[in-house]
Design a protein that fits this description.
Layout (H helix, E strand, L loop, with lengths): L2 H18 L13 E5 L5 E5 L10 H112 L3 H20 L20 H11 L8 E2 L12 E6 L8 E10 L12 E2 L3 E5 L3 E4 L7 E9 L11 E4 L3 H24 L9 E2 L5 E2 L3 E7 L8 E9 L5 E11 L3 E5 L5 E10 L2 E2 L6 E4 L6 E3 L7 E3 L5 E4 L6 H4 L12 E5 L6 E7 L6 E7 L14 E8 L4 E7 L14 E7 L4 E6 L4 E7 L6 E7 L3 E6 L11
Antiparallel strand pairs: 1-2, 3-4, 4-8, 5-6, 5-7, 5-9, 9-10, 11-13, 12-13, 13-16, 14-15, 14-17, 17-18, 17-19, 20-23, 21-22, 22-32, 23-31, 24-28, 24-32, 25-26, 25-31, 26-27, 28-29, 29-30
Helix pairs in contact: 2-3, 2-4
Length: 644
């Protein structure tokens, strides 16, 4: 049978089925679906599918699927309700934000208006007072001027009388003398009888009446006067805001008033009690109240399935607002309460499960950077790397004292909650400690880092390679610096790091920032010109050590006749001569005394001491003025003669 015949047979069967049903629906004896099969003789045929074939899904599975779909619908509706609440809350926050902006703008305008009014009043008072002083000054000057004119006239009259008396005295003619002397005498007597006021016509002091600034004080006080708030408005009861014994009440304050706290009052309304004398349908029990700072409150210990009347007042430093309009809230029944509690418990369990599953794994141990760790007789600065891809909340530094025979003490100490990758630890002088670090996060502490040994017998530091001049090289152990004779290319001299020295071939040391006593030694050669001492961390990189006010150093200069030594600070050095060239130089820094001393270690000879109060922390500095090398020895105990 070919494919064409099979198709025709299938069409005839469908037509017969439709005819048998009178144009209606197909009978259940023959399915409208066909099964396609391949026989062994490679012929094709279609066979009808029976309707009574077993269903691949059992009845129980169908009910389970239905229950699951019902649960999904319920959860979806709950989530939609939560989303609606969150959107409403976001809208409420936006309204509060806008209200705050408006209130701030209004308060700013009020303050600016008060400010302008006060300035205007004070300016008016100043102008009035200045005008009064000007008038008073004018009156005093006029009175003094009149008195000055009167004194001038009196002096002119006396001068004229004196000249007249002299002329009469010089007259040799007796007749003329007798004729002129009597009028002169009368004029002199009249002038003598005149009273000349030699006291000042006015006072030199100006009247300084007390200024009446009561209105200004009133205006200033009005700035701080806060009006009593207006009446709040209680919001209607929201869905899911009540349990069997509690109510969540929210209210609003539609004004820019300042409020310190709110007082919510409530009392139950009992419907089964007789009416009171006023004809009210209910009787009220005693009023309860609660004081809150927010515009919402949850009232507990209430009667189940009961109606409560609530009102609220606002209070500030000025007074209490009128009470809001009374609003009725309803507590839930026991069934609703149990459902709410069950949902809350399930939600809390799910949240706790989510938190437990999202906890970060325990971090890996940190890596201590032993080369960058520094110490002194009083403390140690430990630095490390996190080395973690997992989040780290803090670090814990563990230390244990050890004896000289490497025996560990039974007492261990810890410094916890260290936020960064370094920690300054106070220690005891002349001890040895074993120190390690742990990283801590919410998952717990990591394992210990590699243990390092820290000694507090002396000051230990390393050289800061980022401050080294490009012509300097530092040995692998970090104790020796070299200045090679060969010149570097210009490209190597183009420094990208602004922290490196550019003129003086020098480098700084990383001294622990502890204001105590520090000692180290420097080994040099006779043929090496060097500069050793201390400098501030921010000392000029394009200047020579000792040529500025932030560095103090001992300098060795080779001359044709002798070895010259200078002790430089701010470009000045005292005139000193050193007869024995020191090969190993001790440097003693004492913050408390404000001294920096240099010693010839071989002879235990004091060379020079700078007297300076170091206000900021300083760093050891080492420089070479000609090709050569010098070696730094630190971590050693200071000799007895250094800090006397």
């Amino acid at each position: 049978m070919d494919l064409h015949v099979i198709t025709e047979e299938a069409e005839s069967r469908r037509e017969a089925t439709r005819m048998a049903d009178g144009g209606g629906r197909a009978t259940r004896a023959v399915s409208t679906f066909q099964r396609f099969s391949v026989d062994t003789d490679e012929s094709l045929c279609f066979e009808p599918c029976e309707d009574n074939l077993p269903s691949p899904i059992g009845a129980e599975d169908v009910f389970k699927v239905a229950d699951t779909e019902s649960d999904l619908v319920t959860i979806r509706s709950q989530l939609q309700g939560k989303v609606t609440e969150m959107e409403n809350f976001a809208s409420h926050l936006e309204e509060i934000f806008l209200t705050l902006e408006e209130n701030f703008g209004r308060q700013e305008q009020n303050l600016e208006q008060h400010y302008n009014d006060v300035l205007q009043t004070l300016s008016q008072r100043y102008d009035d007072r200045a005008a009064g002083l000007e008038e008073e000054k004018k009156g005093k000057l006029e009175a003094l001027y009149k008195q000055l004119l009167a004194c001038g006239q009196a002096m002119d009259a006396s001068k004229e009388l004196i000249e007249t008396a002299q002329d009469v005295y010089r007259c040799h003619d007796k007749r003329l003398f007798l004729k002129a002397v009597m009028p002169a005498i009368r004029r002199i007597e009249e002038f003598a009888d005149e009273q000349v006021d030699l006291t000042l016509a006015t006072s030199l002091e100006f009247n300084a009446p007390l200024a009446d600034l009561s209105d200004v004080k009133t205006m200033m006080d009005s700035i701080n006067i806060v009006p009593a708030p207006s009446a709040p408005v209680i919001n209607p009861q929201a869905p899911n805001s009540a349990t069997q014994t509690s109510l969540r009440v929210c209210w609003s304050l539609f004004s820019d008033d300042t409020v310190e706290y709110y007082e919510l009052y409530y009392r139950p309304v009992l419907e089964d009690t007789p009416a009171d004398r006023t004809g009210a349908p209910h009787a009220f029990l005693s009023v309860s109240g609660v004081k809150v700072m927010e515009t919402h409150c949850t009232v507990t210990d209430l009667l189940p399935n009961a109606q409560y009347e609530l009102w609220v007042t606002a209070t500030n430093t000025t007074g209490i607002s009128p009470a809001s309009e009374k609003t009725l809230y309803m507590t839930g029944d026991a069934c609703c309460s149990r459902i709410s509690e069950s949902l809350a418990r399930l939600a809390s369990e799910r949240i706790a499960r989510l938190i437990r599953t999202s906890l970060s794994p325990v971090p890996s141990p940190p890596v201590i950077k032993q080369r960058e760790c520094t110490s002194c007789p009083e403390a140690a600065l430990i630095r490390w790397e996190s080395g973690n891809t997992n989040p780290v909340d803090s670090y814990t530094v563990e230390l244990r004292e050890t004896g000289t025979d490497a025996s560990e003490s039974g007492i261990a100490e810890s410094v916890v909650a260290v936020p960064t990758c370094q920690c300054l630890i106070q220690l005891q002088t002349g001890r040895r400690y074993l120190i390690c670090v742990r990283a801590v996060n919410i998952g717990g502490p990591s394992g210990r880092s590699e243990v390092i040994t820290v000694s507090t017998t002396g000051t230990l530091f390393s050289l800061l390679e980022d401050t080294a001049h490009p012509c300097l090289s530092i040995s692998e152990d970090g104790s020796t610096i070299f200045y090679e004779e060969e010149e570097l290319p210009i490209s190597a001299m183009a420094l990208e790091d602004n922290n490196a020295f550019t003129r003086c071939v020098a480098v700084l040391g990383d001294l622990i920032p502890v204001r105590g006593r520090h000692y180290w030694e420097v080994e040099v050669d006779d043929g090496t010109e060097f500069r050793i001492g201390v400098a501030s961390g921010d000392t000029e990189r394009n200047s020579y050590l000792g040529a500025n006010n932030t560095s103090w150093c001992m300098r060795h200069i080779l001359t044709p006749s002798r070895h010259k030594y200078e002790f430089l600070h701010n470009g000045w050095s005292p005139d000193l001569r050193i007869t024995v060239n020191p090969v190993r130089i001790g440097v003693a820094l004492d913050y408390e005394r404000g001294t920096l001393s240099f010693f010839n270690v071989a002879l235990e000879q004091h060379l020079h001491t700078f007297q300076c109060h170091f206000h900021n922390h300083v760093q050891p500095c080492f420089g070479l003025d000609n090709p050569g090398a010098l070696t730094v020895h630190n971590g050693i105990e200071a000799p007895n003669y250094t800090f006397i």
